[in-house]
From TrEMBL:
GO terms for molecular function: hydrolase activity. Residues 1-22 form the signal peptide. It comes from the Eukaryota. This is Type I phosphodiesterase/nucleotide pyrophosphatase. Pfam families: Phosphodiest (PF01663).
Length: 486
């Protein structure tokens, strides 16, 4: 895969001074919306990068755009709920998407034919592939899917069937528009939404097939960029699923970059007073910045730029930013410390725990409190606290974990000796992400009030001239438009 690195591009970039003032509501509708996640990019990284590179494409986008400097992604901040939030307008309690690896008491293991005792792991990552060592192995192997009973019949559950609410892609398709999405696993067909029909085109090369280095990930990201450039030309990329029914660019496209996330995990920030960008991070940001410039140039060449709203919003951050805070705790120690039988636990810089018996919740919480210092636990959320903090009711939903363990900033429940950061948790480093929107017709604006990336979904529909209230999660959670679009 290292040979792919010939695609790597560099770019220069620039310092941006932002001002806050009242903004006119932009003209709508736009003909196109392109939504990109720079995975791992924090709000603070926007400032650091534009200061380090005084003529960047990011600076150019910000010069005719709206920046939200206090934007928060989903909690938990895993890639799956973070992605779903931006295209449904909902949090995990509403979408039902908590993580890419969870437990469900109503599911059965793959290949079980729904026999035995219900309760199974629901993992939607590279494990679904026919062969995760290949970029392209045929998509999802149905034999790897979890199963459940529907009207007495055992069915395999594709990721899109797991989503409890519709997506912006489905609303766009219902309006006769074309859509496309690009991401890191075939499991990201989840963006189809519960109808299974949200995407005209899906493009999902398997990132697990690529060595975990910055340069190899940049080469992998170039596959995404070439796919977007092809889609702008009105052509579905090779190895994609679905098809375009016209030669026009899809009205709604989305997808992600992985390079920055890998640089954060493998190299991290500089160990100085400001946690400045390391050479590896600058290298990754330079590539992404140049890629955004090429996409913008292609839109301009095709005559689409003025009619396109470009959204850049990270599906997750990465913790910790300060490399001196990184600490590893064995996830088995966390599970054992509960002192009660555990059905399943998902751990990163968070712990999601499902117990065999809900009567054991108080005991588990008490035992974790006794071991909080040893395990670097900041707090354990359960019961009424889950409801009060917006996570949902574990007594009413098989999807909601019984316990959410929040460690101290920088602590990760892992045995890995190669990571320097991770995401999934509840800290600001995990959740406070880059978020800006650009179009040549917009005046440069900055909003410092707190917003959520769930607000992107209704904003997308408003920009396309569609009804934001067509999104079920928007109605359920009363999700507002982003400032400047209301």
């Amino acid at each position: 895969m290292a040979s792919l690195s010939k695609f790597v591009l560099g770019v220069a970039a620039a310092l941006l001074t932002v001002q806050i003032r009242a903004a006119p509501v932009p003209e709508v509708p736009y003909k196109y919306v392109l939504a990109f996640s720079i995975d791992g990019m924090h709000s603070s990284d926007v400032e650091k990068y534009t200061a380090a590179r005084p003529g960047s494409n990011i600076t150019k986008l910000l010069s005719t755009g709206y920046e939200y400097t206090n934007a928060f992604t989903s909690a938990p901040s895993d890639s799956f709920p973070g992605s779903i939030a931006q295209f449904t307008g909902g949090s995990p309690r509403t979408t039902g998407i908590w993580y890419d690896d969870v437990w469900d008491w109503t599911y059965y293991p793959p290949g079980s034919n729904c026999t035995g005792t219900p309760g199974a792991e629901v993992a939607y990552a590279e494990n679904l592939d026919y062969n995760s060592s290949l970029l392209w192995s045929g998509g999802i192997d149905p034999g790897n899917l979890p199963q459940t009973l529907v009207d007495g019949k055992c069915v395999s559950v594709y990721p899109h069937s797991r989503v409890q609410v519709n997506t912006a892609f489905e609303v766009a398709r219902a309006a006769g528009l074309q859509t496309a999405y690009v991401d890191k696993h075939p499991s990201y067909e989840i963006m189809n939404g519960p109808s299974g029909k949200g995407l005209s085109v899906g493009y999902f090369p398997e990132i697990q097939a690529v060595p975990v280095t910055v340069n190899d990930t940049i080469a992998y990201d170039e596959l995404h960029v070439q796919a977007w450039l092809s889609l702008i030309e009105g052509k579905a990329p090779l190895n994609s699923s679905g098809a375009l029914n016209t030669s026009a660019m899809p009205s709604l496209m989305g997808g992600n970059f992985q390079s920055v996330s890998v640089a954060q995990k493998t190299v991290g920030y500089n160990n100085d007073s400001t946690s400045s960008l390391s050479p590896a991070l600058i290298h990754a940001f330079d590539y992404v910045d140049a890629a955004l410039g090429r996409i913008r140039a292609k839109l301009e060449q095709k005559g689409y730029l003025n009619d396109t709203l470009i959204i850049v919003a990270s599906k997750h951050g990465q913790a910790p930013i300060n490399p001196r805070l990184w600490t590893e705790v064995d996830p088995d120690a966390l599970v054992n410390a509960t002192g009660v039988p555990v059905a399943f636990a998902t751990t990163d810089d968070i712990g999601l725990i499902w117990l065999n018996d809900t009567a054991d919740i108080p005991t588990a919480v008490g035992n974790l409190a006794k071991n909080a210092s040893e395990l670097d636990i900041q707090t354990t959320i359960s019961g009424a606290q889950l409801i009060a903090q917006g996570f949902g009711n574990s007594a009413a939903s098989s999807r909601v974990p019984h316990l959410i363990v929040r460690p101290k900033l920088g602590t990760c429940f892992t045995t890995s000796k190669t990571k320097l950061a991770e995401h999934g948790g509840l800290s600001d480093d995990d959740r406070k992400v880059a978020c800006f929107i650009s179009n040549p017709k917009l005046q440069k604006m900055t909003w410092s009030q707190a917003v959520n990336t769930t607000q992107i979904a209704p904003t997308i529909l408003k920009a396309l001239g569609l009804d934001p209230n067509a999104l079920e999660a928007v109605l359920s959670e009363n999700t507002p438009l982003l400032p400047g679009f209301a």
